[in-house]
Amino acid sequence: MKRKLLTVITEQALERQLVQCIKAAGAHGYTITEARGEGQRGVRNADFDQGANIRVEVVCEANVAQQISEELHRRYFRDFAMVLYLSDVEVLRPEKF
């Protein structure tokens, strides 16, 4: 069964707001891990404290992924470091997503 994998890499300070947006869109769950790397806004180290980045992954139906993407774009793209991308995935337990 096909679903979308929505991946968001952004500032840890947005975690609570992202989770609210994901739940409000109807996603069944999410995974958050720490993230580090380098981009246009500089290097992010491995410290998982203020100023760190997080990686949020959501496997969900396409319309839910689209709704979350549009909301994050509208609210955060202009003022926050945020990378967002969608991938097609094949899930083995579609009832969970």
UniProtKB/TrEMBL annotation:
It comes from the Bacteria. InterPro entries: N-reg_PII, N-reg_PII-like_a/b, N-reg_PII/ATP_PRibTrfase_C. One of its GO terms (biological process) is regulation of nitrogen utilization. GO terms for molecular function: enzyme regulator activity. This is Nitrogen regulatory protein P-II family.
